[in-house]
Amino acid sequence: MKTALVLGAGGFIGGHLVKRLKREGFWVRGVDLKFHEHAETEADDFVVADLRDPYNVRGVIDRRFDEVYQLAADMGGAGYIFTGEHDADIMHNSATINLNVADSAYKRNISRVFYSSSACMYPAYNQEDPTNPNCKEDSAYPAAPDSEYGWEKLFSERLFLAYNRNYGLKNRVARYHNIFGPEGTWDGGKEKAPAAVCRKIARATSGDAIDIWGDGEQTRSFLYVEECVEGTTRLLRSDFEGPVNIGSDEMVTINQLVDYVADIAGKKIEKNHIPGPLGVRGRNSENSLIKERLGWAPSQTLRAGLEKTYEWIEAQVRRNSI
Length: 322
Fold this sequence. Notes:
Layout: E1 3-7, H1 12-23, E2 27-32, E3 45-48, H2 54-60, E4 67-70, H3 78-81, H4 87-107, E5 113-118, H5 148-167, E6 172-176, E7 179-180, H6 193-203, E8 209-213, E9 219-220, E10 223-224, H7 225-236, E11 244-246, E12 252-253, H8 254-265, E13 270-274, H9 288-294, H10 302-321
Helix pairs in contact: 1-7, 4-5, 6-8, 6-10, 8-10
Protein name: NAD-dependent epimerase/dehydratase family protein
Keywords: NAD
Organism: Novosphingobium umbonatum
């Protein structure tokens, strides 16, 4: 039986990835600081461990796994990443985890680790026009991410690829673009835009206004989690090391995102535009390279993913209001 190690398995994407690997017949070990908050883990073995401690990392990477997925990181939505209040923790925690994982995997003779980078590493100067952002993979340099979160992701990309060059490994690097879906963080400050909008509209009644940071004309693309997992497994098993975008190329404004969710909910929702952390003005996944190298790209519409996500978040809101 093939074996897989999912680091960050108590998180949103990691939880879905564990389910996918179990459906494929893998024996799966999951590792995280905590158990999954919104679903029972399907991992055969789940270890609660702090991966900032190299002793713990050596303990969970105690054998050769067929596949290793490194998703563990200190992260969240714009309200967490872009305020500047968490920069030191974000950089220290995530970089320490990645340094430990890269070295421990190499010393266990594990030649192939998937590393989840982020579109936040792209230069801010290429994302000032909301109608025409440039997020092609080869646009990463000269580097100028808009956050310390992005700088750490860029460093860790280079770390895993340096192990490839120096030690003949086959690590794989992907840049995720705004992953969303059920069983993810939807409240508390670390949630991302789709979850926050779904929560606000689920709590609202028709005719209410919800708060939106900025003018709402900033653009993004959002990828449904099942397609993220599909792209992730395809990349790890391919002969392409990346970095490559894993994201949707269906770009919308935040105002359009609100309108989509309001329509799904069957509610008339007004927008109250207020100051808040925004990130770059425009961002969209550029999928030419993934189509060329993997013969695949995400295809599900944003609305289809939002319908499933809103249904799940609305159920959480009802449950928590009882």
